[in-house]
Structures are given as C-alpha cells and as structure tokens.
Write a structure and sequence with these properties.
The protein starts with 9 loop residues before the first strand and ends in a 5-residue tail after the last strand. By secondary structure, the chain is α/β, with parallel strands linked by helices. The radius of gyration is 19 Å and the shape is globular. The protein has helices at 21-38, 54-67, 81-90, 123-131, 144-149, 158-167, 172-176, 194-198, 226-234, and strands at residues 10-14, 43-48, 71-74, 95-99, 108-114, 153-155, 182-185, 203-205, 239-243, 250-254, 259-260. Helix content is 32%, strand content 18%. A hairpin with an 8-residue loop joins strand 4 (95-99) and strand 5. The protein has a 6-stranded mixed sheet with strand order 1-5-4-2-3-6, sandwiched between helices. The chain has 2 domains: 10-163, Alpha-D-Glucose-1,6-Bisphosphate, Chain A, domain 3 (3-Layer(aba) Sandwich), CATH 3.40.120.10; 170-264, Alpha-D-Glucose-1,6-Bisphosphate, Chain A, domain 3. The chain contains 9 helices and 11 strands. Helix 3 crosses helix 6.
Length: 265
Amino acid sequence: MTVIRFGTDGWRAVIAQDFTFANLSRIVEGTARWLLEQYPQPKVMIGYDCRFLAGRFAAAAAQQLAHRGVKVYLSPSFATTPMVSLATVQHQCQLGIVLTASHNPPEYLGYKLKAPYGGPAPVAMLQAIEARIPDHPVSVPEAWETFLERRQIEMYDMEALYANYIKGRFDLKALAALPYRIGFDAMYGAGQRIFPRLLPSLYRFRCEYNPSFGGVNPEPVPKNLGDFARFVQENALDFGFVLDGDADRIGMLGSGGRYIDAHHL
C-alpha cells in the first residue's frame, strides 16, 4: 500500500499510479476522522481543476465524506482554488478541498486542503489528518443519489459566488473602458471562464478545456509562455496576464511579450 505523506498544501501524485480511487478513499477517511473529532456537524467545500478525472475524484470524495456524516458542497464544474477558498469562508465551512495539482505536469493530480479562513491548512492540521489515514481503502455502500436526496451533498456554483464577489468590489465598467488591449492566458486551467466572464473584451489564449495542457506544464514562467508572448506581439497587445492550472498563481507579459513576474506586479 502506498505511503501517503502530505506536503505544504496536501498530497500530489501521478494519476493511476499512486493517485487512485483506493488511495483517495484512504485520505478522505483520514480527513473525515479528523473533522468528526473536531466538530459536531462539519461542513466541507469541494472543488476541482481541469485535470483528467478530477471531477470524478471530487465526486468520490464528496460521496465518502457524506457517508461519514459530513455536509458537502460540491462544485458542478471545475473551479479555481481561490473560488474554493472564498466559498469555504462565505459558507463557514470547516475545510475546503481542491482536487488539483496546481502547476505540476498533466499526469499529476492532488488533494489540496484549505483552512476555515480560506488560506493554506496549517502544518498541525495536515499532520493530524495524515496521522489518521488508514492503510486500507474504504468503500461507500450508498448510491450517489441517496446523498443528493438527503441534501447531504449539495451542488454549489462557486464561480457565480466568486464573480458576484468581484463585481461588488471592483468597477468592472471602468476597467473595461480603459484604452488598453489586454490578453489573457488561462494555460487551459480552471481560470479559463471567470476572467472572460468578468471582462469580455480580453484577448483570450488557451481558454479551452484540455487536460493535457497542450503538452506544457500550466506554470506561468518564461519557458512555458513562448506561444503567449507571440500572441501578445501578433495582436499588438499592451500587456497580457496568465494564470497557472488552478488560478492561484499569476504572471504577466508586457508589450512585446516581455515577462513580468508576480513579485513585480
């Protein structure tokens, strides 16, 4: 049986090698044990990115947590990590879970945990959950529909929540009226819908669903942005911004495709 060790955000592994439904069930069981020890009626927000089978893994995690008596809010489609963080806070959930491998290669998937305040889970929490992971898979006898009927699992549109939150805090009409030609590169990641939704005039690049990420790691660093740099140049854009696979990292290209890292934004 695979030895599961959490990193700073949770756990990542190669899909179908170590990241399997059996191993996920072990991690979810450890999560459920910790939650039920800490809270009488825990609530969890679950989202997932655009990676292969991420939605299936998220649904399996939701079903297992619901089986253990945890209330689950599950995104009906892919969602960014910031969306899950915001929804966790807004709904006063005890935990946020994102099935994502962030900027890692496409064959990876991960189990990222967010604390009740929306930020990364503290080390003590990760260690406590890891210590409760069993060495055997856990099965769920009840059907998916049973949990929906009981409202133990609720489908929740985190993207709509996030869009309304942004609209309430930024003057999007004023931003849209600025005399700039702006490019946006989602790197085929989970941020591909939200920014065009908020600013429809953006020049879009890699804003489609592609679990292979076009053969490029979804990390906004210069070696991965050559195609976007050419896009910025060819369309005479003033600048462009780019997100990683789960949209919690940002990079920027100036006019001519010059790279500007997050530390200078």
